[in-house]
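Re: Re: ligand-bound prediction request (bumping)

Still looking for help on this. To restate: I need the protein modeled with adenosine-5'-triphosphate bound, output as structure tokens. Inputs repeated here so nobody has to scroll up.
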Amino acid sequence: MTSEPILEISNLRTVFRVRGREIAAVNGIDLVIRPGETVALVGESGSGKSVTSLSVMRLLARRIGVIDNGSIRFRGKDGKTKDLVTLGEEEMRQIRGNDIGMVFQEPMTSLNPVYTIGDQISESLRVHRRLGRREGVEAAVGLLDKVGIPDARRRAGQYPHELSGGMRQRATIAMALACDPTLLIADEPTTALDVTIQAQILDLMQALQRERGMGMLFVTHNLGVVAEIANRVAVMYAGRIVETGPVAEVFKAPRHPYTMGLLKSMPRLGTASEMKRTGAKLPAIPGMVPSLADLPAGCAFAPRCAFARDACRQAMPALSPVNDHHGSRCIRWQEISA
Ligand SMILES: Nc1ncnc2c1ncn2[C@@H]1O[C@H](COP(=O)(O)OP(=O)(O)OP(=O)(O)O)[C@@H](O)[C@H]1O
Ligand code: NI
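Reply:
Sorry for the wait, this slipped through. Here it is.
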């Protein structure tokens, strides 16, 4: 792909001040998303996935969380590229919901319980696209229909609590897409839904993304979801990207012991019932995720890593190029094969 990136994160560092101490939840990450491309961020809980997406949207809790280094170059609908790190809050408000759509795990974080679904979508269209009231409502009904909500006109007149979880998530997707964003950020959008609904929502997001050529940053801890939806994957551990590359390649031939461990602990299709029958457990990665306030010297994964050598405990390995589009932060990547 040669098209210019929609999003280009360089050396991003986001810190939290907790009880007078500074911890880096995101510690120097690089990430590029091009039009029509889905990049998945994966990693165990606390690895910095959500902080990365919140940094892009500049929705970090004021004063506690701050971006303290790097740049986030974003190309909006006007074709201009801006650094979101230094953008003023007013301009940022224009970008959120207009140039960047957002979908979160819990639809109620994006929906307001006291307004009807239709009013909320049309409100966003009126603010960002200057549509009149009637046009806004018509467009909202069209969008609800588009995201597969049956009887869209009647649903538009309902309040969020009158919809099921899956329907509510469809409504937030409609809202996120209302202004035709160039980038969609989805943070665990299907995690709260049951498996059948989850598959439907993923299909929907994929279809809409293809149709509109948006870039998508998809945060999940579910590697099955990554395989389903993403072109490229970035594996995070303790605030850093430890491996990145095309999904098919990384899943087939991981070059970082952490990625390998994640893949081994992943339930595969059909194995769940088999495991139930045999009583077998998934192999989890031994050891615990380190506390960010107390990271070991060198590679943060070394204490849990079967491949670790003394050198790993001395300096943080750089991202080695496995090839042009695949990188691993492991000094022994050449010896690693799943
Ligand atoms: N509001 C906050 N105050 C202090 N520290 C925070 C705050 N939010 C996040 N952190 C720190 O940032 C780290 C990364 O959090 P983040 O939410 O990005 O993890 P995640 O990868 O999204 O995990 P999960 O899979 O559980 O959603 C946390 O482990 C925590 O140390
Ligand atoms: Ni998260």
